[in-house]
Amino acid sequence: MSSITLSVQGLRKVIGKRTIIKDLSFELKRGEVFGFLGPNGAGKTTTIRMLVGLIKPTSGTIHICGLDIAKEFTKAMSHLGCIVENPELYPFLSGMENLRHFAVMLKGTTQARIDEVVRLVGMQERVNDKVSTYSLGMRQRLGIAQALLGKPDVLILDEPTNGLDPSGIREMRAFIRFLAEEEGLTVLVSSHLLHEIQLMCDRVAIITKGEIIRVDSVTNLLSSEERLQWRLRPFALGKSVLGSLTELLNEQEETVTTIYSEQLSGDWNRKLVEAGVSVLEMNRKLPALEDLFLELTGGESID
Amino acid sequence: MINLVQNEMTKLLGKRRFIIISVIILVLLSMFTYAQARQAETIKERLGTVDWRTELQQKIVDWQNRLSSAGQWREQLQIQIEQSQYYLDHDINPSEPGAPTFIRGFVENSAELFLPLLIMIIAVDLVSSERSMGTIKLLLTRPVSRFHILLSKYIALILSVSLVIFIFGLLSYIISAFMFGNQGWAAPVLTGFKVEGGELNISEVRLVSQWQYIIQQFGLAWFISLVVGTLSFMLSILMRSSAAGMGTMLACLIAGAILSNMVSSWTSAKYLFMVNLGLMNYVSGTAPPIEGMTLGFSLAVLAAWMLGSLVVSFAVFMRKDIY
After folding, report:
1. FRET pair for A162, CA 20 to 30 Å: which of A261, B117, B276, B320?
2. Rounded-to-integer distance, Cα A125 and Cα B18, Å
3. For residues A79 and B143, what is the distance between their CA atoms, to the nearest angstrom?
């Protein structure tokens, strides 16, 4: 089987006269975590709903493991697990009953497999309680268990850390990495938090107003936008020394911002010290999502 | 497929729908049986200590005397005599009926509104509740086609209708047999009335055993409930909220009850489903709301509505975008 598990070509959705999704194309490989980054209302959820077959695209094709979801829906879906938005389960049934309910719809899923995924998400103790008594974190885990039941090749998670507490978020991140690295799944994760994507994903697509404005590896994307913030004393001297070495992007009282460079930054620091400037602080700054958008879209605002 | 239907039934059981319905039936039943028992007592008091057998015998003799001069009423009199003779032969007091007579009256009065209402409780949120809970997103992203998912839900509805009718029959039997005794299953009941040209045609009137009559009634009640259930099922797909679906369906049912009393001159109204729900009236011999309506006609109209709403249900559900 080829290493491309999810392929989207020219995906487009028109509702009424508005084009909500404009010609999206991207491909995901086996074993990678792919981030879908964009502000609220950018079209992430609509795109994901098209990927999982809840919304029919106006045009374009979606292939999961080489199967066109428009033509071979049931076959394609057997390679896919997903949680769209919140992990909604039947509150009046127990966790186990919920899993059995969905297992029935996946051919060849045994009770052993159900027990296995329950163990995988660490829900053994509460699985026989009613879902209505679960915390959001537990529902999220049960949702993941449900998505993994059919041993999917592609896992699609819409805002998986939404509503989780910090330890839950860390666990979820580690779990997603585990699935991709150890189990070889392709995981597509959407988020509106850059920080989140940065910690989980290998590659990221930045989407705004229904368009992908950039697809790149997380390291490339971030390093090209990373900044270094200097606090120098005396400030005027420090500024002129630093200014002779590189471009000064932004200055505030006592601090000045330059680009970050793995090779050069140490050098600049040494030159500053040699010139008799005390470097009180060197702060590597990741760009905020807003800044990234501003840079990538050339000042177009997010609405 | 069987597994999918099982899933749907599990969910209905999990939502305690059948328990709610059983409780409603139980409460109403006890009220009705109590009322009936009180009424029987009053009648007994009024009649005093006169033995009902002598009284009935007297009546039969009266009717027999009138037979020769009855003219066109001759046949009806004969039937009445036959019926009374049965009560006498089997030692059943006609004014002190048993469980079957109560059940017969109860089904007749419940089939048009009460039973369909109970079915609505189940049908109206079969699909819309999945949407409001958001679980439809999980349901429709399985490797199962939307057609099969909806079909499993509809089969679950048919099973539920049958189950509700069964619970209804069972509970009314248990309670009324306890209150009134279990006699009279084979008692004769008049059926076969026809209304032609505004007049009651009794040429085909015959006597059938009460149990046969009751089975027929339950069959019709099942059909009425299934039709109303199917229409509610469609509304459950078309409307996001169960409350809106419930309201619409309720308005239709009540409109039907009102319309039936006033549409006699608006003849095309006979194609509306709600005017045709009074199937019981054909069997018991009440005049239909619009002239020319027969049992067969009403069954055909209801079947057409049911088929139509099924087509709409599947067509919409299979194409719908889920947001």
Report:
1. B320
2. 30
3. 9
Torsion of CA A111, A186, A158, B4, to 10 degrees: -30
Give the span between the Cα atoms of A19 and A270, in whole angstroms.
53
- Closest by Cβ to A106, choosing from B143, B319, B323: B143
Contact (CB<8Å) B138/A102? yes
Q: Is B145 on the interface with A (CB under 8 A)?
A: yes
Angstrom CA distances, A5 to A10, A83, A116, A184, B17, stand at 17, 18, 24, 11, 43
Subunit contact B143:A78, Cβ cutoff 8 A: yes
Strands (E) in B72-225, as ranges, are 188-191, 194-196, 199-201, 206-209
Tell me the nearest-neighbour CA distance from A108 into chain B, angstroms: 12
Is the CB of A90 less than 8 angstroms away from the CB of B11?
yes
Residue range A110-156, pLDDT digits in tens: 888 899 888 888 888 888 899 889 888 888 888 888 888 888 889 99
Q: Decide: helix, strand or coil at residue A33.
A: strand
- Strand partners for A259: A227
Contact A88 B134 (CB under 8 A): yes
- With CB atoms and an 8 Å threshold, state whether B7 touches A105: yes
B184: which residues sit within 8 A by CB, 6+ positions away?
A: B92, B97, B98, B99, B100, B101, B210
Query: How many pairs of residues across A and B have Cβ atoms under 8 Å apart?
Result: 79
Summary mean pLDDT of chain B: 83
Contacts with B10 from chain A: Cβ below 8 Å: 93, 97, 101
SS in 3 state form for B7-21?
Answer: HHHHHHHHCCHHHHH
Question: What are the b/e assignments for A31-41, b being 16+ CB within 10 Å?
Answer: bbbbbbbbbee
Distance CA(A289)–CA(A62), nearest Å, equals 28
Identify each DSSP E strand in A38-144 by its residue range.
59-64, 67-68, 80-83
Rounded to the nearest angstrom, the minimum Cα separation between A171 and chain B is 23
Listed in sequence order, the residues at least 6 apart from A283 whose beta carbon sits closer than 8 Å to its beta carbon are A228, A229, A230, A231
β-pairing, A211-217 with A59-64?
unpaired
Stretch B65-80: mean pLDDT: 72
For residues B179 and A301, give the distance between their C-alpha atoms in angstroms, rounded to a whole number.
Answer: 77
Of B10, B143, B145, the CB nearest to A101: B10
In three-state secondary structure terms, A295 is: helix
pTM of the model: 0.82
Q: How many whole angstroms separate alpha carbon B117 and alpha carbon B229?
A: 9
What are the respective helix, strand and coil percentages of chain B, to the nearest 5? 75, 5, 25
Q: Which of A107-111, B116-120, B266-270 is the most confident on average?
A: B116-120
Please list, in sequence order, all residues whose beta carbon lies within 8 angstroms of the beta carbon of residue B178, skipping any fewer than 6 positions away. Answer: none
Using the Cβ of B138 and the Cβ atoms of chain A, whether some distance falls under 8 Å is answered with yes
Rounded to the nearest angstrom, the gap between the alpha carbon of residue B262 and the centroid of all alpha carbons in its chain is 22
